[in-house]
Amino acid sequence: MKINSLFISDLHIGSPVCQSEKILKVLESYNFETLYIVGDTFDDKCPTRLNKKCWKVLTKIRSITKNKKVYALKGNHCREIIDWMGEFLGCEVIESIDIEIDQKNFLVIHGDCFDDVITKYSRLSYIAGKLYYYLQKIDLEFCLKIKSKFKFLSKCNAQIQKNAIDHCAKNHYKGVILGHTHDKADFEKGGVRYVNLGCFVEKTCSYATIDLNGKLKLHEI
């Protein structure tokens, strides 16, 4: 299917739960002009975790960079690996980018800057991330159940949404496209459209497209 742009986020390549097959299926299902990889492309700073499936995804992305525009954004899992991340993907790694959708100004950014836990308690966030990684290797279903019942995570997600929308309203954006929380969403509040791309590390993965008519839409796979 021919489209204008494709947005994917939180691939976490190298994670034991990275849905490599789904990433490849999405990349191969569309004929697009621009690809936005909206942060947390890799799961960790250690490239030794990359298996054959991971390398297939990287090879596909590198092939896309040869004749398409590709923007890779920094995420909280990527900040220590910016130098070699760009070399692996074959493109420049940036903090954020402004784009126009349906004549409206949108901010595209990973979203960790809106996360109070990361900005205020970075060490705690790092430890929690490592613990969650190893729990995923042991029992993914158990991890997802914990996540769905952990009210603290819901409060964090709501705070991230509020921070992102407040930032956009203050800086005259009409919308924001981000990832980070792994929870897909598409709603409008206070004149700002909030689109969270979700992730590619859970059973239901999600991404967004801009069609040839300039319409932004969220999809599941």
Largest sheet: 6 strands, mixed
Q: Based on CA inertia axes, which overall geometry fits?
A: globular
Average pLDDT across residues? 87
Q: Find the structural class using helix and strand composition.
A: alpha/beta
- Measured as a percent range, the helix fraction is 25-40%
And the CATH topology? Purple Acid Phosphatase, chain A, domain 2
Total count of domains = 1
Which H/E pattern describes the elements? EHEHEHEEEHHHHEEEEE
pLDDT < 50 runs, ≥5 residues? none
Just give the CATH class. Answer: Alpha Beta
- The count of helical stretches stands at 7
CATH 2nd-level architecture? 4-Layer Sandwich
Distance between the termini: 15 Å
Task: State the CATH superfamily name.
Answer: Metallo-dependent phosphatases
Percent of residues in β-strands: 15-25%
Structural commentary:
Helix 1 (20-29) runs parallel beside helix 2 (52-65) and helix 5 (122-138) crosses helix 6 (140-149). The strands form 2 sheets. The protein has a 6-stranded mixed beta sheet. A 5-stranded mixed beta sheet has the order 5-6-7-9-8, covered by helices on one side. The relative contact order is 0.19. It is built from 7 helices and 11 strands. The radius of gyration is 16 Å and the shape is globular. 38% of the residues lie in helices and 23% in strands. It has 221 residues and is α/β, with parallel strands linked by helices. It has one domain (5-220): Purple Acid Phosphatase, chain A, domain 2, CATH 3.60.21.
